[in-house]
Specification:
Elements: E1 2-7, E2 12-19, H1 21-38, H2 51-81, E3 91-96, E4 103-110, H3 134-147, E5 150-153, E6 164-172, E7 182-189, H4 199-203, E8 211-217, E9 231-245, H5 251-256, H6 262-293, H7 303-313, H8 319-324, H9 326-349, H10 356-368, H11 374-383, H12 385-413
Antiparallel strand pairs: 1-2, 2-4, 3-4, 5-9, 6-7, 6-9, 8-9
Length: 414
Amino acid sequence: MKVTVQNKKGLSKDLKIFIEKKIIDGHLSERYEEVSKTVQLKGFRPGKVPKEVLKRQFGKAIFGEVLDKVLKETTTKALSDNNIKPAGQPKIDLKTFGEDKDLEYIISVTELPKIDLKPIENIKVDEYEVKIDKKEIDKRIDEIAKNQKNFKENENSIAKNGDLVSFDYKATVEGKEFKGNEGKNTQLELGKDLFIKGFDKQLVGVKKNDEKKILIKLPENFPEKEVANKDAEFGCKILFVKNPEKVSINDEFAKNLGAKDLNDLKLLLEKQINQELKNSLNMLSKKQILDQIEKYKLSEIPQNLIEQEVKIITEGLKEEDIKKKSKEFEKKAIKRIKVGLVLNEFGETNKIKIEENEIQAEIQKQLRMMPGQEKFLMEYYQKNPSAVASLRGNIYEEKMGSKKRRARKKNKKK
């Protein structure tokens, strides 16, 4: 194979590839031999079909297979041998090809820009030390206790905001019943307005065994479309009124939250707060790294990469909105491509790789942070490759930071 590199404008290059016909003939002979072992033709035993017969029957298809294989192999080798990293799929222009002919073709490729990397230790990142004040742990426990309300029934209590009211109801619209118009033991914490907007207010002042008529307009998004946005009458039978009680912060409280006792709960919360602070500090470090990477100068960024990135950024937006902010989107795309190219070069230079098991471990970590929503989150990652790519980027940046810290410690020892 003979390769001639022709520089064009900027990052564009043409590679002229010449392959002698004897190499093509060799590939064709191998393929005909493979086909002859498996093909079944009337009048011939398997493996005994003459090449001329195969050529008549399958000549065009076999040549197409061989040509495709040779083009893929030689294109990859030509780019690799000449240290050319393509920014997108190269274009191939066949000049001469065919059986009993030399193969000559031209690869037109846009090359990724060369990046002059500074040593990784030159990137400055602030160092932080996490110290947790015991008051922060107590504060977190108090916040949990406020959200873990206990309610105690009071026979004579008159409902007010903050109380829990339980009731049965039957609703009608224009005097007629509708699907889903009945409810049993419906419980509302007054003041939160989580049922139908304005419903809570009309329950203020009720007490156990009261019967209360509530007139209210059903919302536009009401499940039963035929009565949505219409006035309804709810006949409510009050079952009980419960008053909120202050939660006692003790071992029993801790056990209800899955801890062994109160001390164990404090240790668990200390670890949680510690991890939250570390995550926040890691985000600061990553931002510092990315801010410095953005200052790297690139001679040129391939236009096809910019166009691809703009498509990703503007996915789902209306065409008129994209046109209005085209410059803004292009600027954002260039920034993201630049950071990506530099990070990739850093990774290759410092042999930073992301393994599949690391991505799966990160997904499992995300699942543990959202108890009860594991199935939803797993489906989200399965259906959104961009979300997985984001996790890959997070792992990559974390490894970059670790590499940086190790380099700094090594320099200090010297």
